[in-house]
Amino acid sequence: MIRLFLVGGFDTASMALAALVWWLAQHPEDCERLRQNPALIDATSEDAVRFSSPATYLRREVTEEVELGGTQLRAGDQVLVCFGAANRDPAKFADPDAILLDRKPNVHVGFGAGHHRCVGSFIAKLEMRVALEGILKRYKGLALDETQPVRYSPGLNQGIIALPLILTKAD
Q1: DSSP state of 109
Q2: What's the pTM value of the predicted model, to 2 decimals?
Q3: How far from chain centre, in Å, is Cα 60?
Q4: Torsions phi, psi of 167, nearest 5?
């Protein structure tokens, strides 16, 4: 718990923001739409969290005997709940492999849910809004630098950890 409070959102928020910038670098029409309508930034950031799902699984201990998907589980068994896939479920989300600037409703589990919801989710969304506002104001052009690879985390959280960009400064 201490780790979660001290460093929980460092990499997850930056990975969600990196995924959003990666998307915008490939979809300049969305970038321009956000510049023209900054009120969409919060919904866009929310969908970036759904799209990227930096924290995609949790370890849990079974508390009582249950059958799940044809597998019998006993109390004390360890399970890995891979909830990140739910955020790309085509039965739940139209065009699940895209970031939609105005997706509504957007009931995803990128921040968890219920009493397991990320305590820092509102800070993460604020960080993403402030960063994206600054990027859109400072740069008129975002493009992927095709000479360098995009690098992904091999660790506990999944997402972009190096995003080579070519930035064109605004006038």
Answers
A1: -
A2: 0.86
A3: 22
A4: -110, 135
